[in-house]
Write a structure and sequence with these properties.
The chain is mostly helical and 213 residues long. 77% of the residues lie in helices and 0% in strands. α1 (2-21) packs parallel to α3 (39-50), α3 packs antiparallel against α4 (55-65) and α4 (55-65) runs parallel beside α11. The chain is globular and about 55 Å long.
Length: 213
């Protein structure tokens, strides 16, 4: 996890700084980080909160962005089938892109590896770094002058997540369509532009994959 944590730490700092810019206090920012624990959707939710978007729009946007976790959990579930329901629920809370990718690769390469120990070691390390980074971001962000424009790092983080993922036609089409629709729909009431862009991107990506075959 060490190389991945080097990238997660500044991401968490940005989340903390963005929370301050949106008007959240330390307890609120950390509470959100603990409960949501999802980088991209957390930043999107913070941005919507700062724009005074309705609660339903904030939650809906976060759910749409995080819908990939349903596929991750379904894929990794067979490896945890022998564990109890409550234990699996606790493991599910820590599920992230990085923990999923590392764990599945390790389980396939080393079938004798303890499933829960390896997964928990990777996922918990990321969780700790994310929470610490968020706290530091809130503390530092509160003392940074607005003129420095550190919150501009938020869209840069999204671009850094988006560009490497656009490796094929469906993901590229989804990214371009989602971004274009979000820009065009920016003026929609209730701050629905981002949610509309996300749903449109998913639909275009799915249609491109289906008809591309």
């Amino acid at each position: 996890m060490s190389p991945l944590l080097l990238g997660i730490a500044p991401f968490a700092l940005v989340a903390g700084i963005a929370a301050v810019d949106a008007g959240l206090g330390l307890a609120e920012a950390v509470g959100m980080s603990v409960i949501v624990f999802a980088g991209a959707s957390q930043l999107a939710a913070i941005d919507l909160i700062g724009s005074n978007a309705p609660f339903a729009v904030v939650v809906g946007t976060a759910v749409v962005i995080n819908v990939r976790m349903v596929m991750y959990s379904a894929s990794i579930a067979p490896h945890f089938a022998d564990y109890g329901r409550r234990f699996r629920a606790g493991l599910a809370y820590l599920l992230t892109d990085q923990a999923y990718a590392l764990s599945v690769a390790e389980f396939e390469a080393n079938p004798e590896r303890s499933r829960w120990r390896y997964y928990l070691g990777a996922a918990a390390a990321l969780w700790v770094v994310w929470q610490i980074g968020t706290v530091i971001g809130v503390v530092v962000g509160a003392s940074v002058p607005d003129a420095w424009g550190l919150t501009f790092a938020v869209p840069l983080v999204f671009l850094a997540l988006l560009v490497p993922a656009m490796k094929d036609r469906p993901t590229t089409a989804a990214g371009v369509a989602g971004g274009a629709v979000a820009v065009v729909a920016a003026g929609l009431p209730l701050n629905l532009g981002l949610l509309t862009g996300a749903v449109s991107g998913i639909a275009v990506g799915l249609l491109t994959e289906v008809f591309g075959e």
